[in-house]
Amino acid sequence: MVERVSDVLDCFNGPPPEDKFSGKAYAPPPEKMQKAAGRPAGIDKKCQMQYSEGAICSRREEYVVFAFAINALLVVLGSLVGIAFRGRMEERLSRAVTAALGLVTIVIGAQMALEMEDTLCVIICMAAGTALGAAWKIEERLETMGEALKAWLAHGGSGGQFTQGFVAGALLFCVGSMAVTGAMEAGLHNDYSILVSKGVIDGVISITFAATMGIGVAFSALPLLVYEGLLTLLFALAGPMIAETTLTQMSAVGGCVIIGIGLNIVYPEKHLPVGYMLPAIFLPLAYLPLAQWLGGLF
Predict the structure, then answer these.
(1) Is 25 helix (H, G, I), strand (E, B) or coil?
(2) Is 134's pLDDT higher than 90?
């Protein structure tokens, strides 16, 4: 049974592995092997595989593409539903469903955070990262960037409903901490539960947006696809160069940030500055080597 790509064995290009039960060399059935002419027996280096009732090859790229396409697809589907039910959608229903999804987001964040191996690392990274984010005014810069994008798209135009829906959707769906943490988990661990949760939340929101602002909301899925796609691919390329312990700690810190995002969804009137916390996700890259070095001195 193939699980996440990070759990399967590294590819090989040589003798087949031994069967763990019989101890004999296992040769994949011919129909399972690559059909590329002139290639030695084995599996393409881009593949990672695990044997269970035959040789199964899974490509990392397929998981990554699937991950960041989910969010954009759900935004489009939600927008189409909103247009279909235009004028018949109760705001009370939308708010109730969004709050319920916020609770699910908190649970996902808690699951990630509880996988921490070094509690002190998470504490220090969250504190130092939030301080850095506040010093750099990340939330204010994100808001400024959003306003600048809105002004640029509306410049010279009529400011019509299409532009309004496109801008509102693009800003809401792209400018946020959940997009970063979701892309990180998808790229590093092939775990796209955060992106799926974000996609469902964005889909529900896009229903109400499209019901009032029209088809422009659906087209906001295009910048979302590019933005999350680039982030996910970037994390996927960087993943093999990062130690597994560091990845676990980054994921745990990201879980703390996700909990904050969920609380903001459930209680929108009590805003937590999760934008300030974004640098904390990357601080384990510096903290763990530094802690190891200091530990070797004593």
Answers:
(1) strand
(2) yes
**Buried-state track 48-61, b at ≥16 Cβ within 10 A, e below 16:** bbebeeebebbebe
Of the chain, the end-to-end C-alpha distance in Å amounts to 45
Rounded CA-CA distance 171/293 in Å is 42
d(CA 164, CA 104): 30
Q: Is the dihedral of CA 170, 247, 280, 293 positive or negative?
A: negative
Please indicate, yes or no, whether residues 46 and 92 belong to a single structural domain of this protein: no
> 128-133 long-range contacts, Cβ below 8 Å, gap at least 24?
128/280, 128/283, 129/253, 129/277, 129/278, 129/279, 129/280, 129/281, 129/282, 129/283, 130/273, 130/276, 130/277, 130/279, 130/280, 132/279, 132/280, 133/273, 133/275, 133/276, 133/277, 133/278, 133/279, 133/280
CB-based contacts of 136, cutoff 8 Å, min separation 6:
279
Provide the domain count of the chain.
2
Identify whether residues 89 and 189 lie together within a single domain: yes
Instruction: Read off the tokens for 288.
Output: 């763990």
Q: Are residues 121 and 40 in the same domain?
A: no
* Amino acid identity at 90: E
Q: In terms of pTM, does the model score above 0.70?
A: no
Mean pLDDT value across the chain: 76
Residue 93: alpha-carbon gap to chain centroid: 27
> Where residue 57 falls among pLDDT bands split at 50, 70, 90?
very low
- How much of the chain is helix, strand and coil, in % rounded to 5? 70, 5, 25
Q: How far does Cα 271 stand from its chain's mean position? A: 22
Q: Give the distance, in angstroms, between the CA of residue 105 and the centroid of all CA atoms in the same chain.
A: 13
Query: Which structural domain, as residue segments, surrounds residue 5?
Result: 1-53
